[in-house]
Amino acid sequence: MQNIYIGYHFTVEPKELGSEILIAELGELPFDSFIETENGFSAYIPKEDWNENILEDIFILSSPEFKISYTFEEIEQQNWNEEWEKNFDPIDVDGQCHIRAPFHPKTEAKYDIVIEPKMSFGTGHHETTHMMVQHLLEMDIEGMKTLDMGCGTAILAILAEMKGAQPIDAIDIDNWCYLNSIENAERNNCKHISVYEGDASLLEGKKYDLIIANINRNILLNDMQTYVNCLNKGGFILFSGFYEQDIPFIDASCTEKGLTFVKKINRNNWVSLKYVN
Fold first, then answer.
1. N or C: which end of the chain has fewer CB within 10 A?
2. Is residue 231 helix, strand or coil?
3. For residue 128, what is the DSSP state?
4. Torsion over CA: 63, 68, 73, 77 (sign)
5. What global pTM score does this model have?
């Protein structure tokens, strides 16, 4: 029996802030995937979890600060990869890292990563993933025990292993991301990545030399002390998933907990920060 999804296609103005708030609200419902589009994003929910009034309590849709419109349609899961393949182009990051789908030809890039995201976030197209890749490309992480928190497709964990980091824990609270990360790690012949389904509560008693956390601002702030507790002295932590205007909140929390700022990368108002313990 085919799984049937309902796909919502949102046009959002202003796009960045409005999309972030709307995705956060939809994430409280059984929507299990989000794909960025030129003017907003698409969101998908299993039909069995859907009803025609599912958006009636979404606050931002009635907010005068945002202009949001949408359409929705029924989609059979068998058509998901077909839709994705039509819209997925290979990505090149700084001439060193090539991120592609299984149906794209292999390149001579130093780090050639094959990702099939299905319904998971993290193809490399999004600014936050792109910046985290940039951070990793310029770091010597050989032998570092690494955590990829909110791993999505496990793309960052895979790159970390290709650069010599090990062992690596990849954690995501979403079941689809958990399963997809296992598949992608196997697809890229990774031997040192362990994937777990859950949240920061899984980190108790763990220690890492490198923590990668590409998550939204509120979760980062809520779990910051847990991350710092897990970071070895001299270890690095990479953050993304938030905007330029969020930096004072992230930086204040990091500084308060003894981390030292190292570097910022920004891309279309999204930012990524690097700290050392």
1. N
2. strand
3. H
4. negative
5. 0.75
Identity (one letter) of the amino acid at 94?
Answer: D
Integer Cα distance of 9 and 88 in angstroms: 17
Domains and CATH numbers, the chain: 4-83 (3.30.70), 122-276 (3.40.50.150)
pLDDT band at 86 (very low <50, low <70, confident <90, very high): low
Model pLDDT, residue 121? 54
- Long-range own/partner contacts, residues 58-67 (CB < 8 A, 24 or more apart): 58/22, 58/25, 58/26, 59/25, 60/18, 60/21, 60/22, 60/25, 61/22, 66/12, 66/13, 66/14, 66/17, 66/18, 66/21, 67/12, 67/13
Cα torsion angle, 179, 185, 187, 189, sign: negative
Other CB atoms within a 10 A radius of the CB of residue 103 amount to 10
Q: How far is the C-alpha of 225 from the C-alpha of 146, rounded, in Å?
A: 17
Q: Which residues contact 205 (CB under 8 A, 6 or more apart)?
A: none
Q: Provide the CA 86 distance to its chain's centre, in angstroms.
A: 21
Residue matched to tokens 């793309």: 155
Length of the chain: 277
Residue type, 159: L
Cβ 122 vs Cβ 176: under 8 Å: no
